[in-house]
Design goal:
The chain is mostly helical and 140 residues long. It has five helices and no strands. The protein has one domain. Helix 2 crosses helix 5. The chain is elongated, with a radius of gyration of 19 Å. The N and C termini lie far apart (68 Å).
């Protein structure tokens, strides 16, 4: 008879609600940043950033800085909310009798905020790389 395998948080990425349902600890922002760097992820704004990077100077730098400002503001807002939902998860876990046996809003909230931070970091890393290169003003 085949034994059933028990799932653990390691079976899921911190961006998945089941990671938290199974007891996974929300990663610190520094850990999220390191994971982004390790995987070389560019984020969901890839096409938007590529279009801005393809422009001629000075429009290129202006567009990239605007995207960077938006991404930085998004990161700060998402970090603030991430702290709130992580505290909510901790409180939720302190009342084990009240927990359902399925994924709840608190698990989804933490995973969603993790993913937003993951994308914000990816955008900012790439934008820093692009802004560190000055294109020739006469580059056609």
């Amino acid at each position: 008879m085949k034994q059933k395998r028990i799932l653990t948080p390691e079976d899921y990425h911190p961006g998945h609600p089941w990671y938290y349902l199974l007891g996974g600890t929300p990663p610190f922002p520094k850990q999220i940043l390191e994971r982004v760097k390790k995987h070389g992820y560019r984020g969901y704004k890839q096409r938007y950033i590529e279009e801005a990077a393809a422009k001629a100077e000075p429009d290129r730098s202006i567009a990239l800085r605007a995207i960077k400002d938006d991404s930085r503001n998004s990161l700060f807002a998402n970090l603030s909310r991430y702290r709130e939902v992580a505290r909510g998860l901790r409180k939720y876990r302190e009342n084990p009798g009240e927990q359902p046996c399925f994924c709840s809003d608190v698990h989804q909230s933490v995973s969603l905020k993790h993913n937003h931070i993951y994308n914000d970091f990816a955008h900012l890393i790439w934008l820093d790389e692009l802004l560190s290169e000055q294109r020739d003003l006469f580059d056609f």
